[in-house]
Amino acid sequence: AQKITQTQPGMFVQEKEAVTLDCTYDTSDPSYGLFWYKQPSSGEMIFLIYQGSYDQQNATEGRYSLNFQKARKSANLVISASQLGDSAMYFCAMRDFALGYSTLTFGKGTMLLVSP
Amino acid sequence: EAQVTQNPRYLITVTGKKLTVTCSQNMNHEYMSWYRQDPGLGLRQIYYSMNVEVTDKGDVPEGYKVSRKEKRNFPLILESPSPNQTSLYFCASSTRGPTDTQYFGPGTRLTVL
After folding, report:
1. What is the average pLDDT across A67-95?
2. Residue A25: which region, alpha, beta or left (left: phi > 0; alpha: psi -120 to 50)?
3. Whose CA, among A80, B17, B75, B91, lies 20 to 30 Å from B49?
């Protein structure tokens, strides 16, 4: 079974609108971290936001927020007020210790296109 | 500025010619890791290191070597590159905690002819 599932290969949004990118995860480890990374066309991986499994509140970083629903094992990224520069590939990732060592597992990604 | 650096950023080489991709971080991180990114396969971990002189295999270690002689450096070595190692490679580092954030280098785009 996939550890990280991103069901949306591509998303389109108009500038200034909000968009939600979906992510579900699977782990047997009670302690884990969930991450979102942005990869623009230039190729670098940019860290956006982190949510720990024991965090009570949803993480927020500027226009990014993480909608963490632990019981449903989902960690959706919400981008408010989209900008043209948000057009990129977005990866959800999870770091856990389920295999006895720390691994970071990525989903397949969602391509976001922001139009004027 | 806190960062992870990789060199070279782009490399075209031929089958069998040994090469090294360097990775360096200035954040005093214990944990370092190498990933490769391929279309349709996403990012996969090659090797990781929990600290100096401690390295271990990730998901796709075949054809690669690493070393960790200093805390800041974690080079990736391809002793005899083959065309199936053509990929985008990322180095990443983090603090020791198993769920801590990993910070990535800018990537190295490798083509093996």
Report:
1. 96
2. beta
3. B17
Out of B58, B88, B101, the one facing A35 most closely (by C-beta) is: B101
Alpha carbon distance B87, B34 (integer Å): 12
Point out which residues pair with A21 in neighbouring strands: A77
CA within 13 Å, CB half, A115: 4
For residue B30, the chain A residues in CB contact (below 8 A) are: none
d(CA B48, CA B55): 6
Contact call for A47 and B104, based on CB within 8 A: yes
Q: What is the pLDDT of residue B42?
A: 85
Record the tokens describing residue B107, joined without a space.
């990537």
What are the pLDDT digits (tens) for B12-53? 999 999 999 999 999 999 999 999 999 888 899 999 998 999
pLDDT band at B59 (very low <50, low <70, confident <90, very high): confident
With 0-12 CB in 10 A as exposed, 13-18 as middle and 19+ as buried, what is A56? exposed
Task: For chain B, give the mean pLDDT.
Answer: 94
The secondary structure element, H or E, covering residue B7 is strand B4-7
CB B70, CB B52: distance < 8 Å:
yes
In whole angstroms, give the CA distance from residue B8 to residue B3.
Answer: 16
3-state secondary structure (DSSP) of residue A46:
strand
